[in-house]
Amino acid sequence: MKKLINAPEDVVREELEGLALAHAGMVRVSLDPYMVVRADAPVLGKVALVSGGGSGHEPMHGGFVGAGMLDAACPGEVFTSPTPDQILAATKAVDGGAGVLHIVKNYTGDILNFEMAAELAREEGIEVEAVVVADDVAVRDSLYTAGRRGVGATVLAEKLCGAAAAEGRPLKEVADVCRHVNDFARSMGMALTSCVTPSAGRPTFDLGEDEMEIGIGIHGEPGRERMKVAPADDIVALLAGPVVEDLPFRAGDSVLAFVNGLGGTPLIELYIVYRELHRFLAGRGILVGRNLVGSYITSLEMAGCSITLLKLDDELARLWDAPVVTPGLRWGA
Amino acid sequence: MKKLINAPEDVVREELEGLALAHAGMVRVSLDPYMVVRADAPVLGKVALVSGGGSGHEPMHGGFVGAGMLDAACPGEVFTSPTPDQILAATKAVDGGAGVLHIVKNYTGDILNFEMAAELAREEGIEVEAVVVADDVAVRDSLYTAGRRGVGATVLAEKLCGAAAAEGRPLKEVADVCRHVNDFARSMGMALTSCVTPSAGRPTFDLGEDEMEIGIGIHGEPGRERMKVAPADDIVALLAGPVVEDLPFRAGDSVLAFVNGLGGTPLIELYIVYRELHRFLAGRGILVGRNLVGSYITSLEMAGCSITLLKLDDELARLWDAPVVTPGLRWGA
Amino acid sequence: MTDSAADVARWARAFQAEIAEHRDRLTELDAAIGDADHGTNMDRGMRAVVAKLDATPAGDDIGALLKTVGMTLVSTVGGASGPLYGTVFLRMATATAGRSELDGDGWAAALDAGVEGVQARGKAVLGDKTMVDALVPAAAAFRHAVESGATAGEAWHAAAVAARAGVKATVPMVARKGRASYLGERSAGHQDPGATSSYLLVHCGAEQLGGQAHSGAVRT
Amino acid sequence: MTDSAADVARWARAFQAEIAEHRDRLTELDAAIGDADHGTNMDRGMRAVVAKLDATPAGDDIGALLKTVGMTLVSTVGGASGPLYGTVFLRMATATAGRSELDGDGWAAALDAGVEGVQARGKAVLGDKTMVDALVPAAAAFRHAVESGATAGEAWHAAAVAARAGVKATVPMVARKGRASYLGERSAGHQDPGATSSYLLVHCGAEQLGGQAHSGAVRT
Ligand SMILES: Nc1ncnc2c1ncn2[C@@H]1O[C@H](COP(=O)(O)OP(=O)(O)O)[C@@H](O)[C@H]1O
Ligand SMILES: Nc1ncnc2c1ncn2[C@@H]1O[C@H](COP(=O)(O)OP(=O)(O)O)[C@@H](O)[C@H]1O
Ligand SMILES: [Mg+2]
Ligand SMILES: [Mg+2]
Ligand SMILES: [Mg+2]
Ligand SMILES: [Mg+2]
Fold first, then answer.
1. What's the pTM value of the predicted model, to 2 decimals?
2. Neighbouring residues of the ion ligand 5, judged by CB less than 5 Å
3. Which of B195, B209, D200, D209 has a CA-to-CA distance to A292 between 20 and 30 Å?
């Protein structure tokens, strides 16, 4: 294992300390329990947004705390859901009297911990709604699974709900934006290499020198298929095809196209992927109204990418363009 | 070699096409010759900034084209300097009548090609000044070498000069800002893994599973020393020590601290590095006035990082805070 | 023969030791069908429980003690198992609130409450390849034994035997809950880590509870 | 015996063929002390030169032809070698502007101009471990031969011999210019790629110029 870390057990704390030192103007960081909170929280009268999950996906979620996006993030240990008391503490720290939205990725651990936290918060008189994001088409959604994993759509939901909350909309409407994003966004990812969790110290899965995994999860969960590595254009078809067919996205649709790097893949490759995605969609009459290209929801140092499409309407485009000032995503101010 | 690319010879073109599709509002891209130009170029009456170099360092330089930073970037083939006619074409495309500053990284190829381009541009009546950035303390600067390589300070120089140009300052003053940045910035990098150029298809250098290279160049040029991998805190000392001693940076100095990822290193690790850098500097009485943490000058998929320090004064801090709207760096608008 | 709060504390400490001993094994089981952290998660949590017990003045109230265990697990384990184990202990705490002694009937009620809680929280049923596959048969066997006139000690033994069989039964199952469900058919052939740690919990009960420190309990 | 523009074009084409043949070798030499692209760079450039020659109506003006070669190299090679080789040809072009025939004196003047240009551009001197170490001795040997009464053909031979010796001399040198200089002492023991390609250029001159297509020229 080669990483720029000290002891594996200190990774999350030290990362949070670094984040706090680097972005003191935007966020405050608590180390006990772990949480990243907007520097000016609570914002009175505004619906507050709380998300969280295991660490190892930076900048998500701590890097998305700030004006126009999250009010707080709760980082767990690497790839381990945060605990209810972290989430409760964050919920209390950011509640501005207008209620709190929990944006939860669909993993059993995340759901259970957020559920317990929401129950505790409600007992303390805080209005909490939770929306679960589940956009990964690599997983069959059925009664016989834990359902689709929450991946790239989470980033989009956090930005869009953040904008809705900043406009002063009530909790139910902000939660509706989140549900809408979840209903109209789909994702799929692929890996060229495995991630290595600091505590394990070795690759989570083994991939041959000429193999890739299509449909990988952001914790290195197995995908749909293991294949020989292929040109980027073919990989785009393997990812975007199932994504487009699932919703389905149709000719005439406008979309937000999000090409995400998994941590070990450089930007030059992401633009090559984006180029083909744009052509792939154009060939189906699907228009790219907005885009995001970069490493926003990572899986430690995994090489690979994911593609997320969100069906856009004028309202979502407007929310997307609204100002956002966070360590990881910033424009308009 | 595992990369998200198609044919090695198409990497640069396809990356540029992707960049153009993703950021149509900010930049225009020419494929013959390769150049990335501000969408609204030329800006009349404003000093124009042109930089460039081999590709493989994204977002530098194409991702730094836009309001408040570069007017044009000239991407060469991967790790190969651009040619004079690219640079000439870019210079002509962005000249707004107030002259053009060439920001050149100190590599023989870059210097020679920019020199020829400047001569040609001057023959066509365009006022051109060139400033060479040479900040890599890993290389001994002497009469017996090509001098220090231009690395992380280039990103800072492009931002700061871009802000000075946006204020309407004349060519000489904008060039002075660049010279000042070069005089007061120092960098050093390290690699955990080698990069792989698409055309070679195999690692540029071999590093053992337990080795790292201290003082690496952004094209995989050999460093000062090959060592056993060490904890992040020790690596920070190995990089920041020589950087601080070289200028030297002294107690009471305020600096801009830039922790840069080389392409294959995820953000979580960069924040761990940043944390220790901040402590390292604090221990020497050096204050971090501004910071930048992320992968801004990369070396394909190389894992590793570099540290750049720039001595700050109020003027530089003000220029740093000025709005910038580029694909790779954005704030204030 | 009844158990006191001190006996219950001994049970928790024994569980911590057992988890520490099997930490890597639990993580390996989770590596095969999950994300390789179950041993780490439970070990972190149970160490925190013991630290908490060490720091808390020993009281008589079994419910209070079980609540401390549950709250500590909830706030230190994370993942799926944190809320699930937390719920087991918190529900047992509610069922035993204010009690300073527990007999077989008391334990049967507590175990039923814990198992009901975990199912309410995680929505897993028998056969989903989760800790439920160890806990449900264990609680059922315990109640059956008590209702058939067995001592609490005998009931704990019966529960451990049933939990062990439940763990083994998870091997061929296809996971339908939790992270392992992403594997679909490929989850078959692997023993569930959460069921395994649950068996260890019941096994420690058989060694420590039932009114006396038993020896020669069922071995894994 | 003099060379016409057609002879000069043949020289350029021969150089392209030679570069293509030795492309990987040149890149390997560059891998050892540079960035592994010298063969790729020169190959890309010389292919473009030949394509340009194919597309341009053949004229009589040697200066114009050399200018085409130089401009094409400048605009297609990049790196350090693009401007340097470009300068060699552009300076030779200036020295031969309007000439439809070149004799020994004419070539000597052209080579001197080219070599001067490369040194003015790159600031390298003999011993810096660059193409200068092949080109300077080659031009000097050429002029010496012509001034000693040799034919242009003989002078080209002498130049190739000198260039070859110059290349070999780069092996023990410590680089002081270009990318190889970052290696310091570690650059010693490796042959310079740019000097090697320069030798190929002069070698092709010995085969193609001097008023006749020679055979049996010095081999690498
Ligand atoms: N819905 C559920 N109900 C009951 N137990 C569950 C459920 N989901 C998962 N589990 C149990 O949790 C165990 C995994 O725990 P752990 O690895 O600590 O958490 P995570 O899956 O979040 O990494 C599984 O082996 C399984 O026994
Ligand atoms: N300053 C210089 N003067 C003359 N020749 C030089 C100089 N710097 C480098 N060279 C030559 O250029 C060659 C490298 O060319 P190439 O690999 O194509 O460019 P780059 O070094 O930019 O990758 C070296 O082998 C050397 O002969
Ligand atoms: Mg987990
Ligand atoms: Mg090069
Ligand atoms: Mg797990
Ligand atoms: Mg080279």
1. 0.95
2. C 30, 34-35, 37-38
3. B195
Helices (H) and strands (E) in chain A, counts: 8, 14
Is residue C217 a part of any domain in this protein? no
Mutate-to-test residue for ligand 2 from D179, D187, D191, D192, highest number of ligand atoms within 8 A of CB: D179
Instruction: Tell me how many domains chain D contains.
Output: 1
Residue of chain B nearest D186, judged by CA positions? B222
Domain interval for residue C89:
3-212
| DSSP state for residue C179 in the 8-state scheme | G
C92, two tokens = 């047992």
Nearest residue on chain D to B219, alpha-carbon basis: D35
Give contacts of B52 with chain D, Cβ < 8 Å.
Answer: none
B83 → closest Cβ in D78, D181, D184: D78
Q: What is the CA radius of gyration of chain B?
A: 19
For residue A254, list its beta bridge partners: A287
Distance in Å, CA C184 to ligand 3 centroid: 18
In angstroms, the Cα distances linking C138 to A76, C39, D22 are: 32, 21, 76
List all residues 6 or more positions away from D20 whose beta carbon is below 8 Å from its beta carbon. D43, D46, D47
Record the tokens describing residue B5, joined without a space: 């690319």
**Phi, psi at residue A141, to the nearest 5°?**
-90, 110
> Would C220 be classed as within a structural domain?
no
Rg of chain A over Cα atoms, rounded to whole angstroms, equals: 19
C57: CB partners within 8 A, 6+ apart: none
End-to-end CA distance of chain D: 26
Give per-10-residue mean pLDDT for chain A (333 aa): 96 98 97 97 98 98 98 97 97 98 97 96 97 94 81 98 98 98 98 94 92 95 92 98 98 98 98 98 98 98 98 98 98 95
**What is the helix (H) or strand (E) element at residue D134, kind and residue range?**
helix D132-147
Q: Does C32 touch chain A (CB under 8 A)?
A: no
Subunit partners of chain D (3 or more CB pairs within 8 A): B
**CB–CB of A204 and C179 under 8 A?**
no
Decide: D41 in ligand 2 pocket, CB within 6 A: yes
Q: What residue ranges line ligand 1, CB within 6 angstroms? A: A 81, 108-109; C 30, 34-35, 37-38, 41, 79-81, 84, 122-124, 130-132, 177-179, 192-195
Complete domains list, chain B, with CATH: 12-184 (3.40.50.10440), 187-324 (3.30.1180.20)
Please state the separation of Cα B302 from the chain's center in Å. Answer: 16
What CATH number is given to the structural domain containing D201? 1.25.40.340
The interface predicted TM-score (ipTM) is 0.94
CA angle C163, C167, C172 (to 5 degrees): 145
What are phi and psi for residue C213, nearest 5 degrees? -80, 110
Any domain includes D220: no
Provide CB contacts within 8 A for A264, sequence distance 6+: A192, A193, A301, A302, A303, A304, B264, B265, B266, B301, B303
Check if D86 has its Cβ closer than 6 Å to any atom of ligand 2.
Answer: no
pLDDT tens, residue by residue, B234-284: 999 999 999 999 999 999 999 999 999 999 999 999 999 999 999 999 999
Q: What backbone torsions phi and psi does residue A249 show, to the nearest 5 degrees?
A: -85, 140
Give C47 Cα–ligand 4 centroid separation in angstroms. Answer: 56
Judged by a CB distance cut-off of 8 A, whether residue C181 touches chain A is yes
Local structure of A37: helix, strand or coil:
strand
Return the CA Rg of chain C.
Answer: 16
Catalytically active residues of B, by annotation: 57, 219
Kindly state whether C37 is in contact with chain A, defined as any CB-CB distance less than 8 angstroms. Answer: yes
Is the torsion defined by CA of B256, B262, B268, B272 positive or negative?
A: negative
A170 CA: distance to closest CA in chain B (Å): 27
Q: What is the full DSSP assignment across A68-115?
A: TSBSEEEEEEETSPPPHHHHHHHHHHH--SS-EEEEEES-HHHHHHHH
